[in-house]
Amino acid sequence: MIDWKKYVIVLLITAGLFVTAIYLSNYFSNQKINQLKTIQDQISIDVLSSETQFSLLSELSCKNISDSVFSDELSELGSKLQWSEDNLGNTAEVSYLQKYYSLLEIKDYLLTKQISTRCGQKAAFILYFYTTAANCSLCQQESLVLSTLRTEYPDLRVYSFDYSIDLSAVTSMLQIYKIKDTALPALVINDNVLTGFHSVDELDTLIQQSFKLQSTTNISPTVKPTNTLSN
Amino acid sequence: MSLIGNIILYTFIFLSVYVQVFFFVTFLENRKKIVIRKGEVKLSNYPKVTVTVPCWNEERTVYKTVQSLLNLNYPKDKLQIFLVDDGSTDNTLNVINQFSKYQNIKVFHKENGGKYTALNLGLQNADTDFFGCLDADSFADKESLVRIMSYFEKNPSAMAVAPSVTVRNNKNFIQSAQRAEYDMGVYFKKMLDFMGAIDVTPGPLTIFRKKVFDELGGYRHGHNTEDMEIAYRMQKNNYKIEHCNDAYVYTNTPATIAKLYRQRVRWIFGFMNNTIDYKDVIFKKKYGNFSFFTLPTRVASIVAIGYLSGRTIYNLCTFLYSKIIVYKTVGISLHAKNLAFDPFFINTQVFSILFIVTFILVFFSMLFGKRMSEGKWAFSPGMIYFFVVFSLVSPFWLLKAAYNTVLKRKPSWR
Predict the structure, then answer these.
(1) Are A219 and A200 contacting, i.e. CB atoms less than 8 angstroms apart?
(2) Which of A104, A130, B91, B170 could bridge across to B175 with cysteines, CB 3.0–4.6 Å?
(3) Contact with chain A for residue B169, Cβ under 8 A
(4) A7, A9, A10, A13: best mutation site toward chain B, by most B Cβ within 10 Å?
């Protein structure tokens, strides 16, 4: 009365669908990781090229330094990396890419500093130290604030570093600025270390004072909430 | 998400995909046997049939119901109609008394005792070989009875034949969602028919051979779902139930979320308690696919839908909460760059892919069900509303029904 064969066939078909889904998912994950690697390789080449160019032109005027536009590429890479960490998990490859990304950030930071010293233009950058949501409840909101500031000031560079990343270069940065894991999120603006959460308005003022940057968009008071979170 | 959570999630997804594939394989096996007749059907013999309409406060709809019975394309002298007023407190008795002038209509009035008592009164007074019921809020299509009887004629071992219950006058999106659900139900019922595993003989115009009741006893309370209880009883005794897919009965559906919620609490409560009453039928070879497929998957689907919908709502809440945090922190920023779309961010995890597979199969059930009940392949927005409305509201009526089951409290009928 019961067609057992059918039950087994359907089981096999369902298992087959599952296996196909897993295979497809892995395929897409690998595609995305490869895409990230390509972006990183590209940025790496660009950084190396700028450094070489800078060394070559050490005697010449600063007008010949090509304006590095890594900030856009770097931030795109940063957001894709964040997504990968959230969705693909902290796999070995994602961790590797994150370390590479941190290094690229440091290299860009050093290069910008050199150019600004040599050529006298003030570089606008913020160093941002954070860690996982479990240990730092305000880090997620601070990240949102910084993303908004980046869209407002395209010339502003934000370099973010995960406190817990296992990379000697980042550890050195932490030591230089004396960042403690109890005082996160931490921001370095103009060589001043600020800890805790800072809202868009506070940083807006600081940025305009320190870097003399012009804002591209005006934050209209009507869309802003009246209460801002304080730490 | 925790490991346990993931294991549960993927088990449920596996079961959902399994059930849908099972239905689909059944469809592929049997698709040539699905017949949708368009014109009139001629029988070699027209047996006498009694149809009982139990009424309790149905003054607004019962007139049309009885009219639809009078308009049936079936010899008038072979159709006996019983209108049973189950102690209504409104104008129902006066409405149905208007019909007492007809030769083949008899009006009964009794004290309120519940739908099953009204049906049993009809049974006691029926002297025909075939007996059926028509809910007072449903209307039968002209050809429905004769098509149902053609199934009895073709198959002497068929003991009950169920029609396709569909929706006609859907006015708002909630009713459109239910229409898509009923269409899907037509498809599932036909597939269950092929498996011999139908679990509900719907109130609207299921016709039985009267000897089913002579042998198994009359209707029981069945936790307010007596149409399910009699089907379970028949399956337990290996009585064959078939589905006449081209016999159409149109029913009214609740128009508000609150009414839908109450209706579904009643249905799920009935299902849970009937299944508990008949728990010795699960996983026994002699009861066939009903025991191995219908009951276990129904049970699993209740739990799965509850879990998955609960999880969906939870995800929705966390999503909204995170958006609120964004708003509180930085206000609304509609910078053009934020709105640019990058295919990188499409979620291609295992869960999403399987969800899409299940969705496609369910969507096919709706489309084919609509084809079976309306004769055409068509898409209706109700199909989308169904997913939205049901996934958001069903966890609540499931929980309430489970809660009521645990406390053994009866939900109100309306």
Answers:
(1) yes
(2) B170
(3) no
(4) A10
